[in-house]
Amino acid sequence: MKESKCVMLGDSSVGKSSVMYRFVRNIFYDTIPCIPEGIFYRDPLKINNESIKFQMWDTVGQERFRSLNKYYYKNAQFVVIVFDVNDQKSFDNVRYWFQQQQQFTLNSAVIIVGNKIDLLTREVTIKQGEDLANELECQYIKCSAKTGQNIIEIFEKIGRIWLSKPQCKEIETPILQKQEESSQKSCF
Ligand SMILES: Nc1nc2c(ncn2[C@@H]2O[C@H](COP(=O)(O)OP(=O)(O)OP(=O)(O)O)[C@@H](O)[C@H]2O)c(=O)[nH]1
Ligand SMILES: [Mg+2]
Asked: Mind telling me which CDD domains this protein's record contains (predicted)?
């Protein structure tokens, strides 16, 4: 089994924590109960006959926390860059987050995620999302943490990207030595 570090990046309030909670616990909060920063685990996903255990690292989008982010990026195999499809500015800032991960990770699998598609106030089209992903040579997927639409698909997709990379054969992660559930920090 491959245990792999997955970092959630993106502007504040785009739904990073919500996507993560939906993926890890299949739960959604209208109001996130506390500042959720830490490491979470989910039961492994089976992708292309490989079992991948996602070690989820949430980050906080606010600018005053950004100097901490280098620590989060370190050794990440997966980078999920989230924006809100109803917020043009969060989409414009995807480039910033992409550059950050390029600076601090090596050959990570990257996916761009347009969240909150359940809302009817769309500012960013699917084509704009796909065009940007093509330009940055990564993949795009839209989702809703609220309804759960496409949440598992994000991680299946990024898992397949990672497995297609030659370097994935070389790293059998234990980035954090098996602290497993005992090290989970959570709001629950
Ligand atoms: N309608 C809708 N609301 C969402 C969705 N995802 C998140 N939200 C809401 O958006 C708000 C912000 O979500 P968070 O998950 O806290 O956003 P974040 O990116 O973690 O924000 P920071 O931790 O501040 O960087 C919350 O009120 C969520 O309930 C979604 O898919 N649809
Ligand atoms: Mg958050």
From this structure: Rab
CA 63 from centre of chain: 18
* 112, 132 Cβ separation under 8 angstroms: yes
Q: Is 27 in the pocket of ligand 1 (CB under 6 A)?
A: no
User: Residue 135: inside a domain, yes or no?
Assistant: yes
Alpha carbon nearest to ligand 1 atom 28, residue: 30
Which of 12, 17, 83 maximizes ligand 1 atoms within 8 Å of its Cβ, making it the mutation to test the pocket?
A: 17
Total of domains in the chain: 1
The residue count of the chain comes to: 188
Which range marks the domain in which residue 140 is found?
2-164
Q: Is the minimum distance from the CB of 173 to ligand 1 under 6 angstroms?
A: no
Residues lying with their CB under 5 A of ligand 2, a single-atom ion: 16-17
* Per-residue pLDDT tens digits for 60-103: 877 777 776 677 788 899 999 999 999 999 999 999 999 989 98
